[in-house]
Design a protein that fits this description.
The complex is a heterodimer of chains A (about 375) and B (about 150). Chain A is mainly alpha-helical and about 375 residues long. Chain A has 13 helices and 4 strands. Chain A is globular and about 80 Å long. Chain B has helices at about 5-35, 45-60, 65-90, 95-120. In chain B, helix 2 (about 45-60) packs antiparallel against helix 3 (about 65-90), helix 2 runs parallel beside helix 4 (about 95-120) and helix 3 (about 65-90) runs antiparallel to helix 4. The longest helix of chain B has about 30 residues, at about 5-35. Chain B starts with a helix and ends in a 34-residue tail after the last helix. Classes of the chains: A mainly alpha (about 375), B mainly alpha (about 150). The interface between A and B is medium-sized, with 32 and 27 residues.
């Protein structure tokens, strides 16, 4: 018996969601098998991971604050990447743009922090981060528009340029290098939290960082931008078919440049939020959001509302695994990365089921599967 | 102190070759994929998975050859996963590749750190692989063949 793959038209939403939930559950079961093999009770581990150790914890509000520190850059980066992805522009360079944004914001904090009031410094940090990251992204867009270079490879390579640049800053002890702590014998990034730190709105003991509010605000703005504005429509058309966009008289080059710049800008803003909260630069400042953001944006099908849900879940996965690693010393926190990978593999497989169906070929029939 | 400049240059050039051989293998592998019309961004993950399993199995079996074969197999299985998702299931190549990188590095650190917590197999404890490839028997250089005469 032979089988044909046939396109399925119109898979109902509940069926899609059911398949995705099934895929995630299957990934958790696979992860559970690995945990069992290590002699760890999967249920105990998962409950610790998904509650992030907040149940019966006196300083649970602290845990939630830390969780939001993971969530904000991830959500904002994913939203930013979804802009470019919607246009089928593969911006793999989230890492590099994030790093440059963070370096630019830190520069502003060190240079202007001592002379300007904290609020002005913070605003300038955000602007500097956006500009630096935006230009870094726009370089690739210009090359693509002018010379037709492959943006996937260009952005990917520029990640490493930025990564080694920040590593260089972190390891070079010299008079000009104001990023480092001068009092330390070993090269170490200096903190600037005395000049600028994002304020927190106290709610009881819990302090809600203003970045969280801004992130949700930007999320709403991007949603409206993509759904209800002319620009958003243009992005969708260019993404679906460049030829159609040209035929309709759209200035494709300009749309590509604008969208990529905007996408990278928002990543720079995420970076400014991150350093402005942490108060110190680091080589591992990105926390892999550039990569994870791509996965989040894809998992949520570039839907802004879904991005917030998915990045909240992935954030739980990532932060929860570090919390659980403290209790279960045999399970390394990279378990989250592995699980994340398995989840996406299975969701991609589930995706296939929503788009296609496999039917047996009828004997002797001339049904070629094309209807 | 006068530095042995020539020595530095020599060892630098020598090390370029030594340290970039893995890069070369990764590149050749990727070229094969690209020739077939795909773009596999998961090379890093595949290399990580091959490295960790190849090393550990190589240590436990005390055999360089089995280690290499394991690394081949582990990498090949990752490639199969990529192919199954992108070719058979028509998933997006960029996304699948990047996920493979995340997944591979996750496996690498998970297995590595997990084992380190118990007991990390040190290469020097295993006689079969202690010297790595340095002791691999290679054929002696063939003596120059007699010059061929006459019209070719």
């Amino acid at each position: 018996m032979r089988f044909h793959v046939v396109k399925r038209d119109g898979c109902p939403l509940w069926k899609k969601l059911g398949l995705y939930v099934l895929a995630v559950l299957a990934a958790l079961v696979l992860g559970g098998v690995v945990l069992l093999a290590l002699g760890v009770n999967p249920l105990a581990y998962y409950s610790r991971m998904f509650t992030m150790g907040m149940v019966g914890n006196k300083i649970a509000y602290k845990t939630f604050e830390n969780y939001l520190k993971v969530f904000v850059p991830l959500a904002l980066t994913s939203v930013a990447l979804s802009l470019a992805f919607k246009m089928r522009f593969w911006n793999i360079g989230g890492e590099g743009q994030f790093i440059l944004g963070a370096v630019a914001a830190t520069t502003v904090a060190f240079k202007l922090g001592p002379v300007l009031p904290s609020a002005v410094t913070l605003i300038l940090m955000c602007l500097a981060g956006m500009l630096a990251a935006g230009i870094y992204g726009a370089i690739v867009a210009v090359l693509k528009v002018k010379f037709g270079t492959n943006e996937t490879l260009m952005t990917l390579m520029l990640n490493y340029v930025a990564l080694y640049f920040v590593t260089f800053l972190g390891e070079t002890q010299a008079d000009w290098n104001f990023y480092l702590d001068k009092s330390s014998a070993r090269p170490m990034f200096a903190t600037f939290s005395q000049y600028a730190a994002f304020p927190r709105i106290p709610i009881g003991k819990f302090g809600l960082n203003v970045c969280v509010i801004f992130t949700f605000l930007i999320g709403i703005l991007v949603f409206v931008y993509l759904k209800y504005t002319k620009h958003g429509y243009e992005i969708a058309v260019v993404g679906d078919s460049v030829g159609t966009a040209r035929y309709a008289g759209m200035k494709v080059d300009r749309i590509v440049l604008r969208t990529v710049f905007l996408s990278a800008c928002l990543i720079g803003l995420a970076a400014a939020f991150k350093v402005g909260t942490a108060g110190v630069l680091a080589t591992a400042i990105t926390d892999d959001v550039g990569w994870t953001g791509i996965i989040v944006a894809w998992l949520s099908k570039m839907n802004t509302a879904a991005i917030f849900v998915v990045s909240a879940l992935i954030g739980v996965l990532r932060y929860g695994s570090t919390v659980a690693a403290a209790t279960f010393s045999r399970v390394d926190s990279s378990f989250a990365n592995m699980l994340q990978g398995v989840i996406l593999f299975l969701v991609l497989a589930a995706d296939f089921c929503t788009r296609f169906k496999v039917v047996p070929v009828k004997k002797g029939g001339n049904d070629n599967g094309n209807g | 102190m006068e530095m042995d400049k020539l020595g530095v240059v020599t060892s630098f050039i020598h090390n370029i070759v030594v340290y970039n051989i893995p890069l070369l293998y990764g590149t050749v592998g990727e070229i094969m994929v690209e020739k077939s019309g795909s773009l596999n961004l998961g090379v890093e993950g595949i290399m990580a998975v091959g490295a960790i399993f190849g090393y550990i199995i190589g240590c436990y079996t005390n055999s360089l050859l089995i280690g290499i074969l394991t690394a081949f197999l582990a990498g090949a299985l990752c490639g199969l996963l990529f192919a199954a998702l992108t070719v058979s299931l028509q998933a997006n190549q960029n996304i699948t590749g990047l996920t493979l990188t995340t997944f591979g590095l996750g496996v690498y650190f998970f297995v590595g750190n997990g084992l380190k917590a118990v007991r990390w197999p040190a290469m020097n404890d295993y006689s079969g692989i202690k010297n790595g490839f340095a002791e691999f028997a290679h054929p002696r250089p063939v003596q120059a063949a007699p010059h061929r005469r006459g019209p070719v």
